Amino acid sequence: MGDIAFTKTFVQHYAFIMKTLKKSHESDTMSNRIVHISVQLFSNEELARQVTEECQLLDIMVTVLLYMMESCLIKSELQDEENSLHVVVNCGEALLKNNTYWPLVSDFINILSHQSVAKKFLEDHGLLVTWMNFVSFFQGMNLNKRELNEHVEFESQTYYAAFAAELEACAQPMWGLLSHCKVRETQEYTRNVVRYCLEALQDWFDAINFVDEPAPNQVTFHLPLHRYFAMFLSKAVKCQELDLDTILPDQEMLMKLMIHPLQIQASLSEIHSNMWVRNGLQIKGQAMTYVQSHFCNSMIDPDIYLLQVCASRLDPDYFISSVFERFKVVDLLTMASQHQNTVLDSEHERSMLEGALTFLVLLLSLRLHLGMTDDEILRAEMVAQLCMNDRTHSSLLDLIPENPNPKSGIIPGSLSFESVLSAVADFKAPVFEPGGSMQQGMYTPKAEVWDKEFDPVMVILRTVYRRDVQSAMDRYTAFLKQSGKFPGNPWPPYKKRTPLHPSYRGLIKLLHCKTLHIVLFTLLYKILMDHQNLSEHVLCMVLYLIELGLENSPEQESDEEESAGGQERCHDSWFPGSNLVSNMRHFINYVRVRVPETAPEVKREPPASTSSDGLASSQSSRRKSLQRENSGTAQVFSLVAERRKKFQEIINRNTSEANQVVRPKTSMKWSAPGATPQLTTAILEVKESILSLLIKLHHKLSGKQNSYYPPWLDDVNVLIHPEIPRYSHGDGMTAVERILLKAAVQSRLNKRIIEEICKKVTPPVPPKKISSAEKKTLDKEERRQKARERQQKLLAEFASRQKSFMETAMDVESPDADVAMEVATSEQHVSEAIYDCVICGQSGPSTEDRPTGLVVLLQASSVLGQCRNSTEPKRLPTTEEEQIYPWDTCAALHDVRLTTLQRYFKDSSCLQAVSIGWEGGVYVQTCGHTLHIDCHKSYMESLRNDQVLQGFSVDKGEFTCPLCRQFANSVLPCYPGNNMERSVWQSHSNKCMQDLVQEVEDLQEQLGTFPVSISSETNLSKEMESVMKDIKSTTQKKYTDYSKTPGSPDNDFLFMYSVARTNLELELVHRGGNLCSGGASTAGKRSCLNQLFHVLAMHMRLYSIDSAYNPWRKLTQPLQDKNSELVSEELPEVPVLYRDVSSLLLIQILTMPQPLHREHFTCIIKVLFTLLYTQALAALSVKCSAEDRMAWKESGALKKNTSSGEKSWEVLLSHVISELSKGKIYDEGETEELSVVNLDSVECYLQQFCLPFLRITSLLQHHLFGGDLPSCQEDEEFTILASCLGLLPSFQSAHQFTSASCLDWPVPAFDMISQWCSELASFADRHPDQVKALLIQEPKWDLPRLLQLPENYNTIFQYYHRKTCSVCTKVPKDPAVCLVCGTFVCLKGLCCKQQSYCECVLHSQNCGAGTGIFLLINASVIIIIRGHRFCLWGSVYLDAHGEEDRDLRRGKPLYICKERYKVLEQQWVSHTFDHINKRWGPHYNGL
User: Fold this and answer.
1) Predicted local confidence at residue 661, as pLDDT
2) 1189: how many CB neighbours lie within 10 A of its CB?
3) Which of 32, 567, 928, 1415 is 20 to 30 A away from residue 47, measured at CA?
4) CB distance 1211 to 1193 below 8 Å
5) Which pLDDT score, from 0 to 100, does residue 572 have?
6) Where are the strands (E) in 190-298, listed by range?
7) For residues 1152 and 924, what is the distance between their CA atoms, to the nearest angstrom?
8) How many CB atoms lie under 10 A from the CB of residue 1355?
9) Residue of higher predicted confidence among 224 and 183
10) How far apart are CA 446 and CA 326, in angstroms?
11) Cα 18 to chain centroid, rounded
12) Which ranges constitute the DSSP H helices of 854-924?
């Protein structure tokens, strides 16, 4: 019983609690706490029932709510400002703004969910009265008054509070109560609610002093009493089998009830017509919220349903004229070509007329409360949302209006949601274009849905933005084109409706009333006559209404009753009866119109049979004198006057005091004084019927005379089966054909009349007037056509321009590496390259005084260092056992090697024996655009002064390419002259090897002689120096300083050629690690290696190499004096066999004077190849077992003296083995052995050993001298590259090819080898343990990869979100893990901060030289850090519906999306994060 006691006490203190709430400033925390208590108390039905009975819980709650709201009431200004007695809540009060009432309302909803409690509430009349009293506080709140003059100064944002309050305090309890009115036995409840609701409404009408006209320029979106009334009516009919008429009020009340909901519909149209712009954006916000998915079924749906109920019970003529009057377009509905509208500017007339017609279509088509089942509704809602746009699963769940009461049981995501979804939509899995935007899994409508179920009416009802309607139509058009159903621009299709529930059959009367037919006739006529302010949309809606009328005819009319005499009988009114089917064929001969004096209609004498067009002016009806004139000839029918008369009759019938015949007309106040123009009466000869107008419209739409031919004349069957698919999709002509067919099917007379009209060859309508007008339209058409053609031409020109830009800027498979530097003419002998400056637009060569430069992005990269020598990618650890050790990465191995060399050899020599830059190397890429360097400087100045902070830092030299907006941070000067020696494939020079070797040596000697003499400082050399500074400062000091003596020039030398190495190696990676694909490839286009080489070469030549140490000599001359080295006590130089050949290549090339001759390049390669080959043999010899070694030594020695001895690997291997045996090299324990030692495997080993060098060299040659790279199969890569480099003298047939045949020794091979081996032997004497370790073993590097991620995100989440950080040993608040190396870090954690750098930023510098890729564990999102900027990349884990779940809010299971992860890896390897991701921001080292 403890529970009960506590609950009772809680309830008794309830009122006090609420007072506290009201005062409390932290009402949020306070209310949350209270809700936590009360939810538990009131969720138990037994407990709730007991407390309700014993403690009057319901009374207390409702009373407390009432008191709470009473504290913030203000006088309502709706309708009658001075005399209004109605009070509403003030939405600006904190109570509403901060939702302070929520805990109470939530408790109330909570206890109402119990059947027994709700039953008590619905039976207690006193409570219902109080509750309706409470609801009426919200009736008419947040009133908007249209600003007519000034723009409102301060845009009030109170509408948020107002909509929230109505939804939470009124609608949710209402849905709660409705959920207990599901069966017949509960009829009594509905009667009670409706009764007290109507009483409250009557009180409200009295309080605001309402008679018959709403006040102009006012609208409130909040009518909860109307909505309670509507929803209970709907429930009564749908679930309780109540007879609607027994609970509906009298006609007068219905007339009043329809006014305000109708006012809202008209105001929506005004807001969309920009008539409320002076009220600011918030009024648009209200119009959108009113129809938005979370509100629509508590707001617009009940409003439209209530209007449908009123329309089904009121006089249809009265209702229709009310609609046009509310929408302010009565004055437009005249047959006259000119009119004066007293209540609307003419610029708004068209959209207001469209609004009125569209509203009528909605009103007459929607069946949400008029007979559709819940499943049909769900399906219709879903189809509408999918037709507007493809949707993700979660957004669809959000967009389908669900019952807003959480307790009501219809939860989206229930079985029927999924089953309907799979019935109407196909799932489109996310597709990826690298560099494209990340897409989510989407649902898109099935073809048969577009074909049969697309319902524009539902789309219009549910669109928050008008553009969505257009989007749905565009998608529909695309479907029809694609499926070949209709090629042109289709009109919205007509969709058959669910049959009306019998209670609402009265709604059909609207379609069959004279007033509507007069309006339809008038509009058809006006459209045919090209009057102003009409549109295709108007015609579309008019046709839709006619079709609705034909589809829903009241009863089959009998053709007989219409005798010929019938037409005479009613010559003076517009139409004989009210049935559309028969009215369609009724000819109207003359119409009397009221027109301004100036109008072109001249005839004044009315012939005998005249229909008067009283739609002309609402003013005329108020000036009785006008109405009597000519009344003998024709009965004047005025929309407004008729409506007033009806209203008066009804009111008089209902008033008991007979003397009070006429109530005061409030409406007179608002007629605009003095606005009446001088009107005069004119008679118009018309002689048309709706049918004839339709046929003429068909001609007008098709642009041909007699374009309509009745289809049944060819095929009678169309009358029997009128549902022909060819009519279901199409444009206006199709719609007209469909309507005429339906009219003919329904009545033989109509059929006959259509045939007659078609037989008369139709002369153009009134000949006098139209000819000029038609001429005008024809001229207009012609002019339009010309304008269109002109526009097309311009667009085409623009497109081709853009295309050519795209081709130069983004060319992917360009055959030549330097297309971007378009060489001005195609002839080969052009001496200078011509560049376009994208800033000043001038073209010209790059000169020393005014150099041109390439737009480049320099970035430090450790991607190469991440290569591993296993093909199996590393997995992200998800258990304590799996750890990642970085010792097998490329960077680690190179590091160890350099350190070892530095222990045993002379420092300066070590620094030329390797390359650095595996970690923190500088990668240079360009977008291919060039600019004058002086133009660039002024461009940077202007960026600096432009304080709009872009996502980059101008002070760091960052900018975006002025042409393609690609991110960049430096400019690489283009070397004057013609980048390439163009005689590319000249025959191999006839000079002998010795001469070339000598020439190369001489060239190296003349150091410092550079075509641009350095002594004279030119602009070019300055720029080259400054770009060199940029390159250096791109990476961190620790990645450039490796020498033992800090700041030694050797460091710079090493760094510079390593930059070239890094860029070559990365290009190789981008090509997939080999050159099999050949061509210039993507990388070629973006490559700027040629320019980069010039810059590096210029700087490298500043460092002289002491000729004694010039490696070239060691490679090409046997040394005379062998002992000089041993004498000196300093460390020896690195033996030649320990030197990295690719590094030597770059040193040789970059220290030669530029431009380099092709023959010298080939000579250098040949010499280096001999060294490389010897290294391969040495490495091989170490790998064999001792007995194999002996065998090779013997077998090779036998062939030593054969002629081709120097070109046979067996001979050379035997020589290497015997030379190396002199030292203690083979004494150490056995190393891992080559498994099979046969000829093939040795040949294969040697080729694999040499390939990396050949690849780098081929790329280098490609960039220096142009020419394509040949493509090949993987197994012939070696031979193809060797011949391409000129190592193969003449191409031999493949089967006898051996790698040794490429050798070309400058001096006798055995002498050279002996000399090189002796260096090792002497080293082995001192350090036998190291001699093998330092031999270069080419490991097979795999391409760089990110860590492999597990299939299911939960695996990562469970392991990492509780894992402690190794630095601070706490569990991080924002854990993250590096996807490159698997390090676990604290994002933004202050605990791990070092020198003001947070851990992620720090790690990105240590692991990726400034680039970090982190997976945020708690959000499933990846962030990229690049230097001082970062961006959210997106997620690679998606749920079953292909959607991200950022921040894991939805809590769906997530699975790896391999395509996305590939895209991420691709961007990492290709260094394109900066270009592809757009939203970068500075991180201020705080990540």
Assistant:
1) 34
2) 22
3) 32
4) no
5) 42
6) 218-219
7) 22
8) 15
9) 224
10) 40
11) 46
12) 890-904, 907-910
